[in-house]
Structures are given as structure tokens and as C-alpha cells.
């Protein structure tokens, strides 16, 4: 019974993938959205890195004052 469900799922997934390959416009739009998302993630991580470089010495100085 489970093998039948797996077979049906794999068949449907294959059909969807094959159908999607004929429509380059849809795949192109998805690719562009993924690329834009990736760029936003990279920019956000750069900003976090810059902020952490400024904050860590400040936190160290505050910790030293408390000792």
C-alpha cells in the first residue's frame, strides 16, 4: 500500500517537473525571485557583520567596567 502511494507521488512529481520545463517563463520568474531573495540575504548578513564589529568592542568595554 505504501509503495503505491510513493509510486503515485513520484509519478505526479515527475509530471509536474516535465510540464514546468516546457514553460521557461514561469521557471525564469521563479529563478529571478530566488536570486533576489539570495541577494537580500547576503546584504542582510553584511549589515549584521558590520553592526557586530561595532557592538562587540563596546560590550567588552562595558563588561570590563563592571569588573
Automatic annotation (TrEMBL):
Domain of life per record: Eukaryota
Cellular component terms (Gene Ontology): extracellular space
Protein location: Secreted
Keyword Iron: no
InterPro entries hit by this protein: CecC/Srx/CECD
Keywords for the protein's UniProt record, in alphabetical order: Antibiotic, Antimicrobial, Immunity, Innate immunity, Secreted, Signal
Signal sequence region: 1-24
Gene Ontology biological process: antibacterial humoral response; defense response to Gram-negative bacterium; defense response to Gram-positive bacterium; innate immune response
Name of this protein: Cecropin
Species per Swiss-Prot/TrEMBL record: Anopheles sinensis (Mosquito)
Highest classification ranks of the organism: Eukaryota, Metazoa, Ecdysozoa, Arthropoda, Hexapoda
